[in-house]
Design brief:
Strand content: 5-15%
Shape: globular
Number of strands: 6
Strand order of the largest sheet: 3-2-1-4-5-6
Structural class: alpha/beta
Number of helices: 8
Length: about 230
């Protein structure tokens, strides 16, 4: 969009919202078992993660922030419930009342964890089988690289930097905005593939996260600052 204004290409820089790899190690099977035991999540469950703020304001969040797609998320979960018998949802972030109410109505078990500090989010990723982004609009979201770094399958709508970071079927899955059936189909594919078949995709995702670690991004910032500072 910026380039279409006619601006000199040399003046345009894109630096992705990065990730601190030190916070997000590639999770092990033992870490997955341990955090599920700690959180009281069944080891046999297929756990879908959603860590964001998708309610209006900072109270319970019963009024949905639609650009974040909480209605799309719930519609996707409704479809998944038909094909995944032990479906479970792990939530984090404030103002999740709309989603929690919807999950209660769908009778899908879930847990909502309030975190005290940002690095704690890594352990939440360890518990997952897939992370789902159902947004209509995003700048990031940051959770894409966090998921990739953690070795968790990522399924996302074509929003924000998901379009730049995810190569469909290679390091994650992409579908069009509001494509509930597409989101459900991709999550079901993750469910059907199993750990061994997923490993090459997860390793590819980890490499993508490495390329956007804060340290790896230093040359991008140096290029951006060239001419502004000595």
């Amino acid at each position: 969009m910026v380039l279409e204004t006619g601006i000199d290409r040399s003046k345009v820089f894109m630096i992705p919202i990065g990730v601190n790899l030190g916070y997000f190690p590639f999770r092990t099977a033992q870490q997955k078992r341990n955090i599920r035991a700690q959180l009281g999540i069944p080891q046999s469950a297929f756990v879908v993660g959603s860590f964001q703020k998708d309610g209006v304001g900072w109270d319970e969040g019963f009024d949905p922030k639609l650009i974040k797609g909480p209605d799309v998320f719930l519609a996707t979960i409704k479809l998944l419930k038909r094909d995944i018998p032990e479906l479970y949802v792990l939530l984090s972030g404030p103002a999740r009342g709309y989603v929690k109410k919807g999950l209660d109505e769908l009778q899908v078990p879930y847990k909502h964890v309030y975190l005290k500090s940002y690095p704690d989010i890594a352990k939440m990723f360890w518990a997952l089988d897939v992370y789902l982004v159902a947004s209509r609009q995003e700048g990031g979201p940051k959770s894409i690289l966090e998921s990739m770094a953690s070795g968790v399958p990522i399924v996302s709508t074509r929003v924000g930097q998901a379009v730049d970071l995810i190569r469909n079927g290679e390091n994650g899955w992409l579908v069009d905005v509001e494509d509930v059936e597409g989101l459900a189909a991709c999550v079901t594919q993750v469910y059907d593939l199993g750990d061994d078949a997923l490993l090459p995709i997860l390793r590819c995702g980890r490499e993508g996260a490495k390329n956007n670690d804060y340290i790896a991004q230093i040359p991008l910032w140096a290029s951006f600052m060239k001419g502004f500072i000595a």
